[in-house]
Amino acid sequence: MTAYEDIYAGSTETTEGKVFTVSGRDWDDIADGLDSDGFDERVIVNMGPQHPSTHGVLRLILEIEGETVKEARCGIGYLHTGIEKNIEYRSWVQGTTFVTRMDYLSPFFNEATYCLGVEKLLDIEDQIPEKATVMRVLLMELNRISSHLVCIATGGMEIGALTVMTIGFRERELVLDLFELITGLRMNHSFIRPGGVAQDLPDGALDEIRDFITLMKKRLPEYAALCNANPIFKARLVDVGHLELEGCLALGLSGPPLRAAGYPWDLRKTQPYCGYEDYDFDVQTWDTMDAYGRFRVRLNEMWESLRIVEQAVERLAGLEGAPVMVADKKIAWPSQLSIGSDGLGNSAEHIRHIMGESMEALIHHFKLVTEGFRVPPGQAYVPIESPRGELGAHIVSDGGTRPFRVHYRDPSFTNLQATSVMSEGGQIADVIVAIASMDPVMGGVDR
Amino acid sequence: MSDEDKTTGPDQGKGKVPASTDPEVQAVGARTGMFGVRGTGDTSGYGGLVAPIVYPVPTQRPFGGWYDDVADALATVVDLGRVVIHRGEITFHVRREDLVATAQHLRDDPRLRFEFCSGVSGVNYPDDTGAELHAVYHLLSMTHNRRIRVEVSVPDNDPHLPSIVAIYPTNDWHERETYDMFGIIFDGHPALARILMPDDWPGHPQRKDYPLGGIPVEYKGGTIAPPDQRRSYN
After folding, report:
1. If contacts are CB pairs under 8 Å, which of residues 48-107 in chain B contact chain A?
2. Is-contact B234 B33, C-beta < 8 A?
3. CA distance to partner chain A, nearest, from residue B43 (Å)
4. What are phi and psi for residue A157, nearest 5 degrees?
5. What is the mean pLDDT of each run of 10 residues along chain A (447 residues)?
6. Res A334: pLDDT
């Protein structure tokens, strides 16, 4: 092979010694003749920020020797969009539109923790209608299924198990169809609002969900059959990304990584919110502390979510026509919504009422939509169990119509810190598996 | 007519607080007027309104329930400052020189055992003179199933806080984020660098004096100002 000059490659003298910038070429070509002057083949590789197996725009800086990772560091911030800053310039209700876009695989959880915090500051927690709470649980558990499906699907894709990817997205599509039916949108719903939810269930939604549950009970065993005892799958996942309980707690890890270390900590059980104490379900744990254990925890959690969804559907069947928004007209969103051909929008009937029938209704609508309600000064933190762990919004109000400060403690952000611990000393190929087992979503990491 | 003219009435003025005998009640600021209009544009008659901003006042003992247990255990190592219980959440206001001892004790004392830290969140109160920047830590005791909040404040001109990464390693990135967004310098942090913003970014975006940015948008002949320059309610 003839050597040629690469204009992007070269070498520079630094305090660390001679450093080569390499993009391609044969490694032996470059390293040839370097051994003589005590040169160590320490290579620093930038993986990402645009790499198909980094779960979004994540940059990994790996220091490698051969195939062994000596040091691993994360570079984040590529998806930072200043959501927390933007919220400070919008009304309390508009805040849901922003937070739903943080962790884009679990929008209902982002909305729920925000709304629970705002409701706590408003001191209206006891006034949230039962139907709204049950609908929140229903949507969150469906969302947990869709989020875990994406985690398992992309995790499978990254180790070359493409069938896991295709069937994972096949089922996720069914969940998104349900979301579309109920909220009008497949993602970024901003459906859970302070005081309740945006609108009632459409006709036939419960039947669709029942059909989905029946189908999922047939489909979920396929994942187990495909992966659980698959020797290649196990060879890639077992003992990879090892992290015991002490490490998890020191690094603030929560969710499936913590439960895969054998600790049954699930906020739905330990610090129930949204009435989770009234549902019958079990906390899933595993004892292997590795990527395989986290996979099994997620798989089992989907069954548990299905159980909760079943119970929520039964409750909703008995709550037909019940209110879904708090009765206090000074807080409840005045507009009545309906799903049209282009998504969720104002219902024609409501527009007729405020434009043609009642001046007071128009004033009320205008005041609440443009100015919004005021939230008493104070701060609240109501964490919930998102598919990735403890998700909480620290909400500060100064008594105004806008949030004074909203900070999200996103589990992806915290869990991603474990990258170094999990992958240093292992193989490059295992870095991918270790990160995938944390299920980081960069929208939530960078916010 | 200027802003000054509206607030010179006999019973109006900055710092006006509601009638209260409690010396702890103090306003950290006030909102004036309504509809966000300044100067002569306000024809609503609400321009003279002054509404003080009063945060929840410190709670006196007994706090009730396990709150007293935590406070007692904590009081053995540090002087308890203000303790606020609001909406069922307890906040311990700690002096910055006590932060490390407090965190160490919260984690290690068997009566406390706050083994899980949910990170640090910064808040900028520009009107809270001498304590403009607050760092808020949410701690969870899985052993006792309790949750508390620890709040520390530093002045804008000396934004130094001790790092508690050695006690709660999870705070590594959280402290970097708070430094990035608020400019609070965590002394003793292993590598306090920006994390979300680019390394060479000027300023700290989440501070209240940092503009949101944005450009006017023209639509069908009308121009809409960027969100932070629009007329808004206050």
Report:
1. 51, 53-56, 86-89, 91
2. yes
3. 17
4. -60, -40
5. 57 71 69 60 77 76 86 90 91 92 92 94 91 94 93 88 89 92 88 90 90 93 88 89 90 92 92 92 91 92 93 91 88 80 78 89 87 90 93 91 92 92 89 90 89
6. 84
C-alpha to C-alpha distance for A297 and A148, rounded to whole angstroms: 10
CA dist., res. A129 & res. A274, Å (int) = 11
Strand partners, A193: A196
Q: d(Cα A280, Cα A268) in Å, to the nearest integer?
A: 11
Pairs of CB atoms within 8 A across A/B: 125
Contact B115 A404 (CB under 8 A): no
Region label for B19, one of left (φ > 0), alpha (ψ between -120 and 50) or beta (otherwise): beta
Output the average pLDDT for chain B: 83
Mutation site, A80, A405, A420, interface B, largest B CB count within 10 A: A405
What is the distance between the alpha carbons of residues A185 and A208, in angstroms, rounded to a whole number?
A: 16
CA distance B129 to B132: 6
Mean pLDDT in residue range B122-135: 89
What gap in Å lies between CA A364 and CA A375, rounded to an integer? 18
CB contact under 8 A, B87 and A90: no
CA A136-A262-A259 angle, to 5 degrees, is: 25
Q: Please state, in angstroms and as integers, the Cα–Cα distance from residue A49 to each residue in A54, A289, A426, following that order.
A: 8, 28, 21
DSSP state of A427: B
Which residues of chain B make contact with A77, given a CB cutoff of 8 A?
194-198
The rounded distance, in Å, linking the Cα atoms of B135 and B122 is 5
Q: Can you tell me the distance from the alpha carbon of B45 to that of B26, in angstroms, rounded to the nearest whole number?
A: 27
Residues B127 and B69 sit within 8 Å (Cβ to Cβ): no
Q: How far apart are CA A141 and CA A256, in angstroms?
A: 15
Report the first-to-last Cα separation within chain A, whole angstroms. 48
pTM over 0.95: no
**A159/chain B closest Cα distance in angstroms:** 28
Secondary element (H or E) of residue A170? helix A162-183
| Residue pair A241/A283 in contact by the 8 Å Cβ criterion | no
| Helix (H), strand (E), coil (C) string for A315-353 | HHHCCCCCCCECCCCCCCCCCCEEEECCEEEECHHHHHH
Query: How large is the ipTM?
Result: 0.85
Could you tell me if A29 and A3 are in contact, meaning their C-beta atoms sit under 8 angstroms apart?
Answer: yes
The alpha carbon of residue B116 is apart from the nearest alpha carbon of chain A, in Å, by 6
The answer to whether B166 contacts chain A (CB < 8 Å) is no
Mean per-residue pLDDT, B56-68: 85
Sheet with B133-141, side-by-side order of all strands: B83-86, B89-94, B146-154, B133-141, B116-124
* Contact with chain A for residue B233, Cβ under 8 A: yes
**Which residue has 């400060």 as its token pair?**
A405
Best residue in A73, A119, A406, A407 for a mutation probing chain B (most B CBs within 10 Å): A407
Neighbours of A24 (CB within 10 A): 8
Q: Are A102 and A410 in contact (CB under 8 A)?
A: yes
Alpha-carbon distances of A149 from A256, A259, A368, A412, A437, rounded to whole Å: 14, 18, 39, 16, 13
Structure tokens at A290: 């590795």
C-alpha span between A182 and A143 (Å, rounded): 13
Q: Residue written as tokens 């609440």? A: A368
